[in-house]
Amino acid sequence: MSTSGLRLVWVYPDLLSTYGDQGNVLVVERRAHQRGLRVERLDVRSDQPLPTSGDIYLIGGGEDRPQRLAAERLLRDGGLTRAVQNGAIVFSVCAGYQIIGHEFINDLGHRQQGLGLLDVVSERGPGQRCVGDVLADIDPQLGLPQLTGFENHQGITRIGPQARPFAQVRLGNGNGTGDGTEGAWMGTVFGTYMHGPVLARNPQIADLLLKLTLDVNALPPVDDRWYEALRAERIAAATAPA
Amino acid sequence: MADSTQPLSPRAKFAVTAGKAAAAVSRAAGRGSGSVIGGKVALKLDPELLSRLAGHLDVVLVSATNGKTTTTRLIAEALRAGGPVVSNALGANMPAGITSALSGGAEARYGVIEVDEKYLTTVANDVHPKIVALLNLSRDQLDRAAETRMLAERWREGLQDSKAIVVANADDPLVVWAASSSANVVWVAAGQEWKDDAWSCPACGGVMHRPDDTNWACGECGFGRPAPTWVLSNGQVIDPHGSAWPIRLQLPGRANQANATTATAVAATFGVHPQVALQRMESVTAVAGRYDVVSYQGRDIRLLLAKNPAGWLETFSLIDPPPAPVLLSVNARSADGTDTSWLWDVDYTRLAGHPIAVIGDRRLDLAVRLEVAGVDFRVFDTLDQAIPQLPPGRIEAIANYTAFQDLRRVVGN
Question: Which residue range is the domain that position B371 belongs to?
Fold first, then answer.
């Protein structure tokens, strides 16, 4: 982290901010402020160069055409790849998750090259969209409580040998591969299908991103009363018999 | 002008009667107005009923993400200057509800019909509208609706062969993209506060440039704001001759001035003078409960409906300033969309300084949202618990769709 504070980059809100993705940015910003960190938030549109010196890059979901355009522009820009080489943290959701993998199927039905920052390959599922609440156990290596989120996608994402599943679903679809995996991670790069937005429903993930940035094992506690109440309610709702 | 006064066929008459009977049964069973079930029964018996019912009418279709019920009402009021109007005034805006509403319109001259965004093309093919009024398009219920740009694309395809005059908002790039396939468009500068669904050019995908508050153009292909012939400016409608007509609505807010401007432009195509049209609109005080001020537990409560980020934004700009107490209620039932992520697209810092009470099925989602926004709030299980805890003053109650219906039920509206 630079001396000027935490540099939080929101990647392409003009294309990848379809359903509350700003929430992930707001939660990280808020929780950093609560720990006394200064935050420099950079919202970078797709006609602007992506800074390579950011600490945390957040990438949201998007509709099919914006997803294609975002991947083209990110690949041409090259900034995100350099940032990851510099040790930056990337947290991506849905379309953003597919874009940072090796390839995905675009709105024209063609295979499109992604950034290859995460060892995953995505395709489009043949059936109905996966829509609804999800409950999953996060990879124990990350030491996080259960994942709660909302999924709304038609993707199938297969994880290659260099990445690990971010979570194993108890309820819901996740990666859509039938093996119960949800999302993927590899070093400091994370991807998930969870909306919600996911960091509002899982503030411990936001804290993990901050801990990785600061290279610390713990952060001062903050008042998580409302987050905890929401989590308890959503987990109960997901597990309640229909 | 009405084309024909041909009476309905026996089959169509039977379908109308059967539909009304089904609606009566539904009402008796306490399942709402019955207009949808009635329409469904009637359409099953005569699939071409909608087009038959509309045959003698001059039809106006109104579609948008926000403001369609209110604008439909304003247009209906204005056109009553020229003759009887039939309208789906309660907002049942899919083919069955529209069929049911029109079945009461044998004597009408005008049909003013609100249409769900997804059904615009289908309904237009059936009713051959004289006018199609398009107000705005923005993200709404993405867990079950089509993508916003896809809706614009469908409108665009549906309108290209239509003979209707399209009255469209020049300030919404998605609406402009949809309407510009039509040969006959009347552009209305009605404004659009929400801009976050149109940063990407609907034509080519380039990034939209907004040099000031009014103008927009794609940096790549040049697709941009058309020159409007009707303009909303400082609470006045400027007509195509440059004359200004003051808007004196009882309905609050900039968004309703925009709705009135579009309604004035629509009425003018039928020969209703702007002054007459606007005067008639002044009589509208509430639309399906929206904007109604009710008295409950000794308090005045103004009921405001906001279903999506663009709607919340417009609502924040019309409420009384702090310290007016605010009550927020959000549900996520199927009619609302079951994903609450959209709350994070709403800028709740705009409520700073208001005492805020939070209720509704999804009050905890809203609580986290407000906590992160850094505004003070209190959470209650019910309206009755919340009201006595709010400081004096008229309560501005803002709710999404089913939460709004719940509020109306509790306060007896």
Answer: 293-411
For chain B, the domain total comes to: 2
A227 in B contact zone (CB under 8 Å): yes
User: Peptide bond before A197: cis, by omega within 30 degrees of 0?
Assistant: yes
The pairing of beta strand B356-359 with beta strand B326-329: parallel
Tell me the C-alpha distance between B139 and B249, whole Å: 28
* DSSP one-letter code for B8: P
Domain for residue A102, yes or no? yes
Domain holding A15, by residue range, is 6-239
Angstrom distance (rounded) from CA B217 to CA A15: 16
Whole-number Å distance between alpha carbons of B364 and B362: 5
**What is the pairing mode between strands A89-93 and A103-105?**
unpaired
**Is A1 within the bounds of a domain?**
no
Residues B300 and B181 in one domain: no
Interchain CB contact of A197 with B (< 8 Å): yes
The answer on pLDDT for B2 being more than 60 is no
* Backbone φ, ψ for residue B321 (5° rounding): -70, 165
Task: Please give the tally of structural domains in chain A.
Answer: 1
Q: Report DSSP letters for A120-189, one per residue.
A: EEEEE-SS--EEEEEEEEE-GGG----EEEEEEE-EEEEE-TTSEEEEEEEES-TTSSSS-EEEEEETTE
B220-276 pLDDT tens trace: 999 999 999 999 999 999 999 999 999 999 999 999 999 999 999 999 999 999 999
Out of A46, A64, A230, whose CB is closest to B365? A230
Q: The domain spanning residue A103 has which CATH number?
A: 3.40.50.880
Tell me the pTM: 0.91
Task: Identify the CATH number of the domain in which residue B91 sits.
Answer: 3.40.1190.10
CB contact under 8 A, B344 and A200: yes
